Automatic annotation (TrEMBL), chain A:
This is DUF2330 domain-containing protein. It comes from Okeanomitos corallinicola TIOX110. Keywords: Signal. It holds the Pfam family DUF2330. InterPro entries: DUF2330, UCP026449. Residues 1-26 form the signal peptide.
Automatic annotation (TrEMBL), chain B:
InterPro entries: NqrB/RnfD. The chain crosses the membrane at residues 33-58, 70-88, 192-210, 222-240, 246-266. Keywords: Flavoprotein, FMN, Membrane, Phosphoprotein, Translocase, Transmembrane, Transmembrane helix, Transport. It holds the Pfam family NQR2_RnfD_RnfE. This is RnfABCDGE type electron transport complex subunit D. It comes from Okeanomitos corallinicola TIOX110.
Amino acid sequence: MKKLRLFIPLLIVLFTVLSFAPTALAFCGFYVAKADTKLYNKASQVIIARDENKTVLTMANDFQGEVKDFAMVVPVPTVISEEDVRVAKPNIVERLDAFSAPRLVEYFDEDPCSPMEKLRSIPAPMAATRGTMENESSFADRSLGVTVEAKFNVGEYDILVLSAKESNGLETWLNRNGYKMPRGANQLLKPYIRSSMKFFVAKVNLDKFEKSGYQFLRPLQISYESPKFMLPIRLGMINSTSEQDLIVYILSPQGQAEVTNYRTVKVPSNVNIPVFVKNEFGDFYKSMFQNSYTKEDKKVAFLEYAWDMGSCDPCSAQPLNSEELKEAGVFWLDNFGDGNNRIRPGFGRPFIANNVYITRLHVRYTRNKFPEDLMFQTTSNRESFQGRYVLQHPFTGELECSAGRKYRQSLFQRFEKEAQTLAQLTNWNIQNIRQKMEITTEQFQSSWWESFLMLFGF
Amino acid sequence: MMFKDIRDYQIVFLSLFLILGIGTRDWTLRPELILIAIATSLTTQLILSLVISHWSLVTSTEINHKQTIFNFRSPLITALGLSLLLRADHWTTMVLAATTAIGSKFIFQSDNKHFFNPANFGIISALALTPDAWVSPGQWGEEWWYCLLFVGTGGMILKKVGRWDTTAAFLGTYSLLEAVRNIWLGWTWDVYFHRLMSGSLLLFALFMVTDPRSIPNATFGRIIWAVCIAFTTFILRNYFYLSTAVFWALFALAPLTILIDSLWFYPRFAWMQIENS
């Protein structure tokens, strides 16, 4: 029992210390640049707004060919009716991209000789059409086992919602009706047919497209209710051998979203890198992402941003207002009145929570590393995360005091560390980095006289 | 003596997984929550043991010396299991999970045997009662060496405990059901292997479904029990899209242990049995 007596106070002490451990992270600095999706040639972008079983899915088209050749076949969990489809404003995806993109921030060292010696960080400001109806009822092409569940047009798109009994029939139907399906498609259509999924098929109506005056295809937005929280990526890989980029913005009233059948890994973040990267931030981010992707054996989803949408710090774009959030598919905004705040019920410390939380996932996938479609879940994890890279500008004025001399000596080490971090993150050649940074030892070495003075604390 | 008790191996292996998890998987694993789980589990076990031994001293004239010895292994294993599988946003959730986990052993007893797996009970109560608990099934990845590690170390324990039949029945049934579904759907086999190679599924099959103190005593009973769990898991995962299907299946079927034990009588498992024999 003697040992036990010692053990109990120990537990109490441990418990008290842990209860008050701080968990919040501070993010600040001046926002300089962002690494948005324009960096990638073939990046598909999808917004998923989801609360419980209700989903609003916005698909942005990165289609680069002739508009007349555009056709899209997406497996969806339920029949989508005309009321469930709309065309979103073209810039809504760009707004979300800008808000959540990995960012570059900069700090400026203060004069170490001034009375305010300590480095102070200045926090960045906190900030918190539908087309005509074609009332054609469903009809079945019995010989092929394909049923047209719905047919309508929305904006510049002609939409069909199909259900099928077997994949060969569906493939034949699609080919007969002018949808060019790649070879081998029927093998991939079968599992979706067997899991009772429907097919959302969209084509561009050229007359309406010309009349609309838009130069690019606008994003299509569909809503449905289903416990399935997934994104079919297999169909997109039929005839592609190269890596494809997919950016998924998940909006939820709860917290961070993650992939349940692959690992979700944070992109490296919160590191100091050399100042010259300011001019080549895009290249830096691309190399760093590729390097992290290879290191993780090409089979993980990367978390690039996770934040409560009421604020950002530092902001690479202003937070979306409620109009824009609705445009992005957020349908639960009105449920909580004007404040958009609610107190979480149940066990645990109640706290105020804004009710739109964004998770930005970046998946680079290939057929051999991502065999299964992506399955997601939202969690209650409200920890904030951002891909954030820091430039720390050295003080360039006169350094005529002892603190100043110490500061100058410390710079060499700091620059070298920044160079090594950059080389490690991007796999770039460290000699080239050093050259670009113009690190030379002489620049930072003190004269014998200065060292002598420093001995006496001057 | 260390390693005389088979549970010591289990403690070492589970700790090893936790360390590997933090070191190589860069999860949202929070060390302070692990310590909270351990501290709460041990404290709850201690308090409840003291209450029970005091109660038995009052009610019976015979003094049972065994009950006064503090059992630290079982709550430690439960705490490690919780830390590996359960995620929470707030520390109170972990406290709730650990307290209910240990409490379930003392409350849900039948014939001096608890029928809920403590860690599983803790996970389910946190998922059901709090808004901020979740399980991250994807975070173990599907690297082959992890599989080997689980199978190797788990196999060692199961061989010593003699409960490998449960794991075999569970994994066998589950993989068979998934294979049939895969053929029916027409997916390629890489989809099937990817679904089965989930680290958390193996962790569950090797370390949770085999706890000898909460599963049926007779071999035949255990096999029926494990097959039922596999069926339920399969249905919950594929038709209700629950990512936490295994935990709900085990929770729902845990009381079946009492029924199976009454149908197939077999001496109750005791940790000391192997040592004595």
